[in-house]
Amino acid sequence: MNKGKVALGALIGAAAGVVAGLLTAPKSGKETRADLKERANELREETMKRADDVQERVKDTKDDIKDHIDNVVSRSEAKMKENEKKASDKK
């Protein structure tokens, strides 16, 4: 299973558990709303941090792929020149 899907499922499950716990806790509506707002802010910050991490990993992966493609193109060009030289030498 995809690690990202597992992490997202765990995050959603944790959020649902927190909401359920807060709604069933013996607190006033005002206190419960304040707790929910605080937790929502915490989750938003955590989500933004994770999104930044994912964005950085995507950028790194893109750079790695570009480097690999550049390497393959360079080797292919060198091989083509080598083959062209061999062909012209045979003529």
Shape: rod-shaped
Order of helices and strands: HH
Beta content = under 5%
Which percent range fits the helix content?
A: over 70%
Poorly predicted spans: none
Q: From the alpha carbons, calculate the radius of gyration and give it in angstroms.
A: 27 Å
Distance N terminus to C terminus?
58 Å
Compact summary:
With 91 residues, the protein is mostly helical. The chain has helices at residues 3-24, 29-90.
Features:
92% helix; 91 residues; 0% strand; mainly alpha; rod-shaped
Structure notes:
- By secondary structure, this protein is mainly α.
- It has helices spanning 3-24, 29-90.
Write the layout of secondary structure elements.
Layout: H1 3-24, H2 29-90
Helix pairs in contact: 1-2
